[in-house]
Amino acid sequence: MLEIKDISKTYDNGHKAIKNISFSIADGEFLSIIGPSGAGKSTVLRSINQLITDDSGQILFNDQDIRQANKQQLRKIRAQIGMVFQNYNLVGRLSAIENVLHGALGRKSTISGALGWYTLSEKQSAAALLDLVGLGDFIYTRANELSGGQMQRVGIARALMQEPKIILTDEPIASLDPQSTTVVMDYLKKIAVEMNITVIANLHQVEIAKKYSDHIVGINNGQVVFNGQPNELTPAQIVNVYGNDVGAIE
Ligand SMILES: Nc1ncnc2c1ncn2[C@@H]1O[C@H](COP(=O)(O)OP(=O)(O)OP(=O)(O)O)[C@@H](O)[C@H]1O
């Protein structure tokens, strides 16, 4: 269970990016954050694993306030939060399985991680995760020889290698064609449903958010203007979230 309580963030240039944001997320829930460009979606996501520090509020992860965690506690919390990136963040010259194994680094000693020493069981897990995302035939393919959709599935397998409780993903499908979008979203959904991993995704396309989410939070100008189930997101609510940024709605 993750509870975001009243978080606000003003960047160093004085811009108030988010204001008193609150919402909560149940375990295994697929939550989408929607809103126009610049609304504050990435700021919220970055707050959750404290890539930026908020000015005020609480972020409770299983009742522990992430904002109050010391370095060691934060490392433990971050180990439970996997990230899936818009631009995949893979090492192109390394194979799919080597990229997935990088997901285990947080649990290894610095030396064995730096030397790329992985146990047989870690290698077996990485191969099984690639199989899970439909890439069993591409284990030894170099990442830069994969399609965008396949690279994103490697990114998902790498996040899973971390054995996370939560996956955070900022625009995971922004660089993908419609067919790859469906495949990647289907796998993210499967992870939430079958592995009970909470998925929090910033999404630009409302229809995709409605199709895949259990719960949607709409942000406009740094504030929550919608917090509910997809079927509660009526056309009027969508206008409320996007204002005049109609292009984003389609
Ligand atoms: N490091 C920063 N310093 C100053 N202002 C920032 C910084 N990062 C973001 N902002 C500003 O804060 C606001 C919210 O940004 P954020 O990236 O969270 O929005 P977003 O909803 O994710 O937008 P997009 O959909 O375009 O990615 C924007 O006005 C942005 O310009």
UniProtKB/TrEMBL annotation:
This is Phosphonate ABC transporter ATP-binding protein. It comes from the Bacteria. One of its GO terms (cellular component) is membrane. The keyword 4Fe-4S does not apply. The gene is phnC. PROSITE patterns: ABC_TRANSPORTER_1 (PS00211), ABC_TRANSPORTER_2 (PS50893). InterPro entries: AAA+_ATPase, ABC_transporter-like_ATP-bd, ABC_transporter-like_CS, ABC_transpr_PhnC, MetN_ABC_transporter-like, P-loop_NTPase. Keywords: ATP-binding, Cell membrane, Membrane, Nucleotide-binding, Phosphonate transport, Translocase, Transport. Residues 2-246 form the ABC transporter domain. The keyword Protease does not apply. CDD domains: ABC_PhnC_transporter. One of its GO terms (molecular function) is ABC-type phosphonate transporter activity.
